[in-house]
Amino acid sequence: MSNNNNAVTLSAPLSGPVLTLGNVPDEVFASGAMGEGLAIDPLNSCLHAPCDGEIIHVARTGHALTIRADNGAELLMHLGIDTVELKGEGFALLVKQGARVSLGQALVRFDLDCIARQCKSLISLIILTNGEHFDVLPLASQTVNVGEPLMQVIARSTAPAQTAVDNSIEEASARVHITHRGGLHARPAALIRKTAQGFSSQARLHYADKSAACDSLIGLMGLGIGEGDEVRVTCRGKDCEAALQALVAALSAPMKEEHHAPAAVTPRRANTEAGVLQGVCAAPGLVCGPLFRLSGIELPADTGQHSADEQLQRLDTALEQVRGEIRNTLEHARQRKNVEEEDIFAAHLALLEDPTLLEAATGAIEQGSAATHAWRDAIQAQCAVLLALGKPLFAERANDLRDLQQRVLRTLLGEAWHFELPAGAIVSAHELTPSDLLQLSAQQAVGLCMAEGGATSHVAILARGKGLPCVVALGSEVLDVPQGQRVVLDAANGRLELAPSEARHAQVHQIRDAQKLRRQQQQAQAHQPARTSDGVGIEVAANVASSADAQTAFENGADGVGLLRTEFLFVDRRTAPDEQEQRQAYQAVLDAMGDKSVIIRTIDVGGDKQLDYLPLPVEANPVLGLRGIRMAQVRPELLDQQLRALLQLTPLARCRILLPMVSEVDELLEIRQRLDELCAQLKLTQRPELGVMIEVPAAALMAEQLAEHADFLSIGTNDLSQYTLAMDRDHAGLAARVDALHPALLRLIAQTCDGAAKHGRWVGVCGALASDPLATPALIGLGVSELSVSPPQIAEIKDRVRHLDAAQCRQLSLSLLDLSSAKAVRQACQHHWPLS
Ligand code: PEP
Ligand code: MG
């Protein structure tokens, strides 16, 4: 047999009929989960070496071993099905692990009768286990005799010849329902890939009659798995159980940005009004300006005169350059704690490293294509796969691929990655990509409109984050609008007005000017304390997750930090932050806030916030499980460590500690006692204030008892709504109904304030309701004296407070408690305290 470094011809290790894997009576082998290969139904009783190589793994029970061929291919030879159960009976190993063997050498003798009597089948397998680096070419399809050609294993050109692979044949599998909204599209697929990469086991997903390795983003997306579909996960390797557990968790975990995305892609609406294109709002806002048409790169025909090596080198260099740029974007996103941007570009980076895509491109170059054309074609082929799935979310992900197509093409063509925008332009394009958007926003575009796209696309998420009005699905007519034409984009209503009158222009300018002026006026007063017209002081603080946020909050006029969600220091990392790192992080927040006070909430993980390094018991209802302060039940040392870090902050007088998810007084008393002990250990005379979050109905109902022992109460309206209304706060279908202005919530808020007042304690609100200006008068009326809001809204909420009369708020808000629904409360609020 002629072998070279790249290709090895394997000889039959057994004699007997040859079967394809699909005919093997075992689900895991048949599905290809273990890798590609062939099977033989043996008629002889000795397994021979199919090639020269090294025995890199031998099952203790003698029923399986793995040989590494000289080209690096690793081949598992597995005798019979379920033969591990024989515990070695009937097998005689003739070689040891680590032995160098030659083609045809006898490796295992086995007793055909004994195996046939006790096991499901004698059918034996020859499986390539590191298939990501090799291709298999079957050479036999009927009956073979030992030593006859069976199959060829060819190294792929980009494959490293020797990669350390987990050769263990332990395996685990589970079925799981996909809970990611819209199915396994790019970001969830990237999460799955990242999770799988944390383990040495090889993991695959199986769906319908297809399967894909978890390390291929494209492979995973190509399965076309939809929300609610059931898939099977298989893991093979030493850490298969842990890998399986992590993958099952990742497959059923909701993605962060999905909480805020509109529930579904709305179909394009017909253009019925003359001079107006109708699309779908992806980010609201009203703007006018000249239209700037952004087009993609069109390549001339390929001349075909290239050196493959040179083109491969060009592609490699371009890919590396783009990866470097994306890593920079990622780093910036991380520094700014912009989780959405981070997720999107992490998925892009994963796509750029995707083996399926890279192999298609390098394969085309080896066949004579130019790097540019090979890259374009490889992307187009993958886009076609995604589009053919016929699911909107997957089709939208094709846009991420087109983004990478453009970026790499621009790099290959040597064009500078930028374009000049006229001032105040509204940009139109077939479909903009996330990197276009970052560039356009930096160049002060005022609006975006696209022929295609959906409201759940990455671009839409980024546009909302940047406050850039954006309309998608306008149809191809938008591409025919002449360059420079003045248009009005009324994004909230999904309208692009192509020929606005002068009067309309003037009106848009007027609305925008009025909004801008109001914002400026509010901003000018942002650093002044907020008092109602009858002199009641309301503290307007900020919700933050980092010292950078705190800095922004301080600049925006925050009276303090009303909620520091410390769990953000603990998530997205492989190890826990130690006491010193925690202390530094909290101190940085304190330092960023001048002389203002900072409320630091102890870690609130569990529920939907899981930590990689902190395996918590699997729970049927995690949101009702060991989350928040309850975690101290199972991991008291974590809370102790955090409390110690907090007690070392200076000045301690500016630091208040807040406990999440408290549901009874004993929880508070226990932590208070522990805090006293730690203070004594650290020889502290001063003790920080200790507050309780009111985010469980039980806590609101027990507010009076809690207030007796707490220094303050802070209402978490997000969870309080979820638990009071029995509606998942992340459920897209219920999003419009999880409204904290529900009368039931208002009653709990009223009860909390009354309970606190009996002990002279103050009450704040740190849930999202505090940032809703429609709710401000009701909250003040019910007795809340601190509102902790998102930093950009500080000026607006302070302004709202200044225009209210607290006595009137008190009087009118009581009547809200008797209304029948959140909708009725909203209407009444708008009636009593209109939002201009
Ligand atoms: C809340 O539940 O309202 C709250 C502020 O906490 P989180 O949103 O972090 O759960
Ligand atoms: Mg909460």
UniProtKB/TrEMBL annotation:
Keywords: Cytoplasm, Kinase, Magnesium, Metal-binding, Phosphotransferase system, Sugar transport, Transferase, Transport
Necessary cofactors: Mg(2+)
The EC number(s) this enzyme carries: 2.7.3.9
Protein name, per record: phosphoenolpyruvate--protein phosphotransferase
Entry keyword Transport: yes
Enzyme class: transferase
Similarity annotation: Belongs to the PEP-utilizing enzyme family.
Primary location group: cytoplasm
Domain HPr: 171-258
Gene designation: ptsP
Subcellular location: Cytoplasm
A GO molecular-function descriptor: phosphoenolpyruvate-protein phosphotransferase activity
Pfam families, alphabetized: PEP-utilisers_N, PEP-utilizers, PEP-utilizers_C, PTS-HPr, PTS_EIIA_1
Classification via PANTHER family: PHOSPHOENOLPYRUVATE-PROTEIN PHOSPHOTRANSFERASE
